[in-house]
Amino acid sequence: MNAFPTLATQRLRLRELRATDAPALFAIHGDTANMRWFGADPMIDLAQAHALIDTFAQWRTQPNPGTRWGIERAGELIGSCGLFKWNRSWNSCALSCELAPAARSQGLMSEALRSMLDWGFTHMQLHRIEA
To answer: Is 69 helix (H, G, I), strand (E, B) or coil?
Structure first.
């Protein structure tokens, strides 16, 4: 894939995750209640957040790449969302997302996902996205 696709909405910036995001990502992924539906155990140390950022970066180098965006509002990382498990033959992939508790109930994830999904349908030529 080419350069990382930064997306902008009215209130958000979807951008590549970086090492400096590890503390915010750890706060989200270290919260047991937050991870209840995510499908992963809560993180127990900051090193896991750094490793997750590295994993997301490596997705883009795979034969069927995935993309994970950091969701930023007013300069602060409030979550992430991504498209992965891209099946080019079926024009499909999966999505996942998480949001910091303080950023919920404001329509922010809906806003982020609309932008991400538009990008996926246009640039990945998707027909189906599974959550």
So the answer is: strand
The domain spans of the chain are: 7-130
Residue (of 33, 3, 19, 2) closest to 77 by Cα position: 19
pLDDT 10s digits, 35-79: 887 778 899 999 999 999 998 898 888 877 889 999 999 999 999
- Cα→Cα distances 64→25, 61, 108, Å: 25, 8, 28
**Which superfamily does CATH assign the domain made up of 7-130 to?**
Gcn5-related N-acetyltransferase (GNAT) (3.40.630.30)
Instruction: Give the predicted TM-score (pTM) of the model.
Output: 0.90
Tokens of 124: 């990945």
Q: Give φ, ψ of 121 to 5 degrees.
A: -65, -35
**How many other β-carbons are positioned within 10 Å of the β-carbon of residue 87?**
12
CB 16 within 8 A of CB 4: yes
Spatial distance between the Cα atoms of 30 and 6, rounded to a whole number of angstroms = 26
- 80 in Cβ contact with 38 (< 8 Å): no
